[in-house]
Amino acid sequence: MDPRDIGVSVIRAADDANVPARLLGGVAVALHCPTASLPAFQRQYEDIDVVIEKRGRKHIDAIARSCGFEPDIEFNNLHGLERRTYYSERHGKMDVFVGRFSMCHSLSFEGRLEADHPTVSLADLVLTKAQIYELNLKDAHDLIALLADHPVASGDDETINADRIGDVCGKDWGFWRTVTRTFETIEQIVRSEPVLAPQRETVVSALAVLRRELERAPKSSKWKMRSKVGDRKSWYALPEDPDRKPAVA
Question: For 3-228, CATH number?
């Protein structure tokens, strides 16, 4: 069964249970982006990523089981307030994030799950990918597909909402620093890889718009104080994941 269909079925089951839930990760990108189906971008989707509102945590086990997933009891007992994991012999692995997505930085989805359906918004997809310090090629290609297929502007209707990205990065210097670093990496990749030539001009233009928006977005007092320290102090977390390989050495 196509991972996109599995993911949508999980969201439909959550809808039926009145639990706000949305897809994120590569499956969500594939649902939005025709570019993701091109030969240069095609890949195996090894898991399904979902984010739910905090109040849905007590219902997600039943929702997962209705879709053929069983909980990883040990992991969920240890981490279940923030993240839960499920497995299916047919469908593979499903990760469920509760209220926020945390990897190298933490992204809250409070008040944001209604922005799109069945996935999180395009801006939030960009933020979940661009906040990864050690970007791998799959994540880089997901970002390139998002930028190639959607305009950067205000609003969330099949648009990468620059206001949302500016707001998140304007409150957290560390988030801003990683995102701007990721944009540099993406531009390096799209300029250097011949197979990405069809996407190059559109992606480079979109990155320029995002950089301008990040530059002029209001910055919090906390952001300004942390910026004075700069790179002298680590600003990101590195999650333990031995399978991750950087896109650029």
Answer: 3.30.460.40
